[in-house]
From TrEMBL:
The organism of origin for this protein: Paraburkholderia unamae
Keyword Endoplasmic reticulum annotated: no
GO MF entries: kinase activity
InterPro entries per record: 2CSK_N, HAMP_dom, HATPase_C_sf, HATPase_dom, His_kinase_dom, HisK_dim/P_dom, HisK_dim/P_sf, Sig_transdc_His_kin-like_C
Residues in Histidine kinase domain copies: 248-466
Keyword Transmembrane helix belongs to the record: yes
Name recorded for this polypeptide: histidine kinase
Length: 477
């Protein structure tokens, strides 16, 4: 791709260059038009003089002894020769030249000359000439008939007049063009002054100052100010979310790390083999909790990031659910877990982010296996029908589930729910919060239910897909 190093890098330079090109194009067009009309004006002026001289020559024709003769009008011819060379020719009805230059070109249309002066362009003695021819009927001549009078004038004076008129008009056009470009430059510089003021305001700000930009600007710049304020607002929200997440993560990591440090200290001073083994097992459990918490913190940050920057694409929800189910069930360790998958269609298309959806479904299954202690899991995908305009994915297990009063809190980050079988809350409180963030990004929702056949169910509801099948594979909502 060619590079235009000469092209101005500033908005003022580019705009002024565009204005200069437009003005120059218009000036060139006006100069051409002025040249044309200057030529027309000089042509008409000198044609009137040439026609007058030709008429006077024709009026000075007379017949003497049946022969046509001429008394040349010196005054008329001298008025033309003051500027150019002048030639004339008189031809009688027989076609005989009775006066003037015999080789001077005659009229192209003798009939037109009988009606009045007929003009033509030609060359004579190596010079460009303009000729005027007029016919006069001479009844006394022998034989009687039309005499043709032709007067020719070189075109130097015409050209000089055309050049003088063109030069004056071109000078005026040039001055007006320079004035227009200069005035445009001043107007553009003044018009861009609010942008420079906005630049100074933003450059002088502290990096932590994320207040909207407030400045009195023309209406044309309000859209830019609105876009800048929108960006600042989103940046403020992102920074607030990051600060809150970092603070929550630091708070959540502080307790297990402190517990890990204490358990290592106790293990290093323990001499009883039985208690040493118990403390070692507790240390392993704590390490596992720290690893799981770290992974969920990173996954939560990843999901938040992807929901804002990754566009949705067609996803086969049925296939994705089977893949995640196959990878998650081995985490049940030694337990024998019964797994079932049901779908109302071989392929169920939605608009989504496959990575975020896999993380959400994995967290739902982890909760059922690790916290619900379930050993029977059924994943069901239901496509929309006439009575339903949504796609639902339901994970049903035979675990203990959650009490209804905890359902809302379970979707908030770092909310640890106390379990009946333990003295302290278990888990990091991030699993279902990640699911909630993913569903919100997909325009869906998370719900809980106690099915009539028993157990506990987590219901993920997605908007109806905009494309299916081959169309869904080829389009991005």
């Amino acid at each position: 791709m060619p590079r235009f190093d000469w092209f101005p890098k500033t908005l003022l330079g580019r705009t002024l260059l565009f204005v200069a090109l437009v003005v120059a194009t218009g000036a060139a067009a006006l100069a051409g038009i002025a040249r044309y009309y200057a030529g027309v004006a000089s042509e008409r002026a000198y044609d009137q003089l040439l026609a007058g001289a030709t008429i006077q020559v024709a009026e000075n024709l007379y017949v003497q002894g049946g022969v046509l003769a001429l008394n040349p009008p010196v005054a008329a011819l001298s008025s033309l020769s003051r500027y150019d060379l002048v030639y004339y020719r008189v031809v009688d009805a027989r076609g005989v030249v009775v006066a003037g230059y015999g080789d001077l070109p005659g009229p192209a249309n003798a009939l037109a000359a009988r009606q009045g002066p007929a003009f033509a362009n030609g060359r004579y003695q190596g010079e460009r000439v303009r000729t005027a021819t007029i016919g006069r009927y001479m009844p006394d001549a022998h034989p009687p008939g039309w005499a043709m009078v032709t007067v020719a004038q070189t075109t130097h004076a015409r050209q000089q007049l055309t050049n003088d008129m063109s030069f004056k008009v071109w000078t005026l056009i040039l001055l007006m063009s320079v004035l227009a470009i200069g005035a445009s430059g001043l107007a553009i510089r003044r018009g861009l002054r609010p942008l420079a003021q906005i630049e100074q305001i933003i450059a002088a700000r502290d990096p932590a100052d994320l207040r909207p930009v407030a400045h009195d600007t023309p209406s044309e710049i309000n859209a830019l100010i609105g876009a800048i304020n929108g960006l600042i607002g989103r940046l403020a929200e992102r920074m607030t979310a990051m600060q809150r997440f970092i603070a929550d993560a630091a708070h959540q990591m502080r307790t297990p790390i402190a517990r890990l440090d204490a358990q290592i200290e106790l293990l290093s001073t323990e001499s009883d083999p039985a208690r040493h083994a118990a403390r070692l097992e507790a240390l392993r459990t704590t390490c596992s909790d720290v690893g799981r918490l770290t992974g969920q913190l990173l996954n939560h940050a990843m999901v938040i990031h992807r929901t804002e920057v990754v566009p949705l694409q067609p996803v086969d929800l049925a296939r994705l659910a089977k893949e995640v189910l196959g990878r998650t069930i081995p985490l049940a360790d030694e337990r024998d877990v019964n797994v079932a998958f049901e779908s109302s269609a071989p392929q169920v298309w939605i608009a989504g982010d496959p990575v975020s959806l896999q993380e959400a479904l994995s967290n739902v299954l982890h909760n059922a296996l690790l916290h619900g202690k379930a050993d029977d899991i059924v994943v069901t995908v239901v496509t929309p029908d006439a009575a339903r305009d949504t796609v639902t994915l339901t994970v049903t297990d035979n675990g203990q589930g959650m009490p209804r009063e905890h359902w809302e809190a379970a979707l908030r980050p770092f909310e640890r729910l106390a379990q009946e079988s333990a003295e302290r809350p278990t888990g990091s409180g991030l699993g279902l919060a990640i699911v909630q963030a993913v569903m919100k990004a997909h325009g869906g929702s998370v719900g809980f239910a106690f099915p009539a056949r028993g157990g506990f169910a987590v219901v993920l509801t997605f908007p109806r897909a905009t494309a299916t099948g081959e169309d869904a594979r080829a389009t991005t909502p």
